[in-house]
Amino acid sequence: MSAPIRVLWIVNIVLPAVATELGLEKTPFGGWLTLMTDRLAARDDFRIGVAMRAPVKTLTRIEKNGIVYYAMPQSASDAFDVDDATVSSVLADFTPDMLHAEGSEMAYTRRFMKAWAGPRLLSLQGVINGNRNYDLGRLPLVSMLNPLRPATALTALALMANHVLRFRPRLAAERETIGLADHIMGRTIWDRAQAWSINPRAAYHHCSRILRDAFYGARWQAGGHEPHSIFVGNAASPRKGTHVVIEAVRLLRPAYPDLRLYVAGESPATLPARSPKRHIGYPAHVLDLIRRHGLQDCVTFTGLLDAEGMARRMEQSHVFVLSSIIENSPNTLGEAMMVGTPSVSAYTGGVPSMAADEVDVLMYRPDDPAMLAMQIKRLFDDPALCKRLSAAARKRARKTHDPEANVQALVDAYGRIVASERERVS
After folding, report:
1. pLDDT single digits (tens) 28-38
2. What integer pLDDT is reported at residue 32 of this predicted model?
3. DSSP assignment letter at 247
């Protein structure tokens, strides 16, 4: 029997499996990482290591459930990076056959890929070079610079400054990271196009995501939801497009007085009065739009939801909206489709690789609130359409997010990568 393939994953969050051991709070994010590494570790033909940047003082090694975790201290000069010595220590201890880096944005991913001479697989999440023209969400920034609305003007200035000073400098770094990869893994024609435009020599491998367990058991039922309710999964940044949803709700409200919009995440209104984020920034801008349109009584911020909370909210909602101006393969859309919540999605990025317009979901142009409102109205008014889309979405999602099929796709990709490396060095 051949020795197991040793794969070192590079991830950008502390996985919940070891958060408690590190004295950290578990995050509801990164469910894909935990599910896939756990399934790989259960196999005899793989040995899995996971390197994570963490708020720890020294490199910490934890072995749990067949996985070796490395909590790496953040660099003193950059909290999103680690030191070369830490990278060398992890590589020397785990002695991988290949690297599998999740995400192209972080500096320490690039550091690992530079330090490792063997095969390097980069899984794409978002691709910020593909997002660069949409990062500011097509907000009317010039008109927002209104001296009569100082908080709005400051928000516009803050967003533009963040784009210039923090977002743009990351573009060249991401291009370098993608350029270092021998192999690229993605899920949509959009991410394949972005990777190819930067690194056409890299081999591309397709592997869809496994969703969190809660969504496989949840199911939307006609008549079991709150009528005329809408759920949006993220309002953290302009490219999530929540401002477009607010405009659509404004258009819909006269026809549906009982309309309710639920937005996942914390409301800026809950922050202390002295907190700048309560008054300036994109979430504060969304809150200002709600107030200006007199929608305070029909918009609820749910707070941070775990997987079970998200699944329940989707079961209870009449319509789910994916309002992002740009996305690769949004997990929240996959989750809504798995639950069967009738969905309206922006036609953007990799979404057309996940769902078909008028078959699985209804689509609209990302910056068109009138079209978004009309698609929501169609679902509000047509129970048969809701049932048809719900059934089709669930069928497609069960195929796209099938755990066994996606694990096998990853295993097959690893096999091709290792085989090509052996052929290269022979």
Report:
1. 666 678 888 88
2. 74
3. H
pLDDT at 1: 53
pLDDT of residue 368: 97
- Give 325's DSSP letter: S
Q: Calculate the alpha carbon distances from 307 to 250, 280, 296 in Å.
A: 29, 29, 26
For the record, the structure tokens of 247 come out as: 């405009």
pTM: 0.93
Question: How are strands ordered across the β-sheet holding 67-73?
Answer: 60-64, 67-73, 46-54, 5-11, 98-102, 120-123, 183-186, 203-206
Q: Tell me how far apart the alpha carbons of residues 295 and 208 are, in angstroms, rounded to a whole number.
A: 38
- Main-chain dihedrals φ then ψ at residue 295, nearest 5 degrees: -105, 15
Q: What residues have CB less than 8 Å from 173, skipping those under 6 apart?
A: 105, 107, 110
User: How far apart are alpha carbons 344 and 336 in whole angstroms?
Assistant: 10
Rounding to the nearest 10 degrees, give the CA dihedral for residues 101, 104, 107, 109: 10
* Structure tokens that stand for 126 in this block: 């978002």
Residue 327: the pLDDT is 96
Q: If you count them, how many residues does the chain have?
A: 426
pLDDT of the residue at 271: 81
- E-assigned strands of 55-179? 60-64, 67-73, 98-102, 120-123
Strand ranges across the sheet with 299-301? 299-301, 260-263, 226-232, 317-322, 343-346, 362-364
Alpha-carbon distance 426 to 422, whole Å? Answer: 6
Report, as ranges of residue numbers, the positions in the chain whose pLDDT lies below 50.
none
Residue-level pLDDT at 277: 83
How far, in Å, are 10, 81, 119, 329 from residue 115 at the CA level? 13, 14, 12, 30
